[in-house]
Amino acid sequence: MKIHHLNGYIQSIYLVEYPHGLLLLDGCCRADVPMLKRFFKDNLKRPLTDLKALVVTHMHPDHAGAAHKLRKLTACQIISAHKESQWYRGMNGLLMHWLDVVLTVYVARRLNKSVKNVWYSRKLKPDVRLTDGAVIPGFPEWQVLETPGHTDRDLSVYHAESQQVYVADLLIKLRHGFICPFPVFHPNKYRRSLQKIADLDSRQVLLAHGGMLTMHAGDFADLIKRAPSKPRTPLRATVSKFKRLMGQSS
C-alpha cells in the first residue's frame, strides 16, 4: 500500500495505490480531474480506470466536486455517509451551494491559482452509503469514521494497520498552528469528533488543508478548548457583520 500526496486546486489529495486498484480518500475539485489524468498516465503508468473507489467526506466543492466526473470516466464507486437527504437541499441549500463555489474560487485566487471551473452538482448520487466503522468495499483495510460538526455528514477515513487517518476538514493547519474549519454547523458534535480522532492516537494525520503530519494529544485538547460553542455558519457570519456595520454607522 502506498499513499500518494498530491497538490490539488486548493486542497491536498490523497490517492492510495494497491496492485488491484486505487482509492481516492476524497472527491477533489472538478478542476483536479486533468491533473489526476496526467498523474495516472505519467507517474503511475496505469490507466485512469484503475481508480476503483473514492470517498466523498462531505459536500463542499473541494471534497465532492470531481466525484461524478471521475465515476463517469472510470466507473469507480462513490462512497458517502449514510444520509438519506441531500446536504444542499431547498432554497437555503441552493444559495449555500453557490456561496461555497464562489468561496472556492476566492481561496484559489488567494493561493495565486488561476480561475478554473469548479461547478458541480449539489446533489450527490453515491453508489454506497456507509455508517461509522464500516469498511470500504474493495479496500477492507480502510474504514470510515463518522466525524460530523463541520457539516452534518463528515467522514474521516482510517487505516488501522499503519495508524493513519485522513480527517478532511476536521481541522486546518496554518503557519501559526491548528484552527477549526469554517463553517461549524454542529459545535457539540464537532468537539466529540475531535476527541474521537484524538483517541485513535494515530501515527500520522492527513489533512485536506495542512498536509501529512504528526499530532499529539495536546494539539487536540487545545483545539477542543478553542472550538466554538455556537454554530459558525455563513448566515450567522453575515448577520453579525451587518450588525457591526450598523453599530458603526449609528
Automatic annotation (TrEMBL):
Residues covered by the Metallo-beta-lactamase domain: 10-209
Record-given protein name: MBL fold metallo-hydrolase
Database matches in InterPro entries: Metallo-B-lactamas, NDM-1-like, RibonucZ/Hydroxyglut_hydro
SUPFAM superfamilies, sorted: Metallo-hydrolase/oxidoreductase
Originating organism: Marinicella sediminis
Matches recorded under Gene3D superfamilies: Ribonuclease Z/Hydroxyacylglutathione hydrolase-like (3.60.15.10)
Listed SMART domains: Lactamase_B
